[in-house]
Design goal:
Helices cover 86% and strands 0% of the residues. The protein has 44 residues and is mainly alpha-helical. The chain has one domain. The longest helix is centred in the middle third of the chain and has 38 residues.
């Protein structure tokens, strides 16, 4: 039982870390798009 709980906790921590990484990268990508648009290099 305790092994299952430990595995579940580890999975939750890993999932949270992955989510933060994805969120950070998407925010960086958005900032890059905004900078490119301001400099006139990105045409949508």
């Amino acid at each position: 039982m305790t092994v299952a709980l430990a595995l579940a906790a580890a999975a939750l921590m890993l999932g949270a870390a992955l989510w933060q990484e994805i969120e950070c990268r998407s925010r960086q990508a958005l900032q890059v798009r905004v900078l490119l648009r301001r400099s006139g290099r990105l045409i949508d």
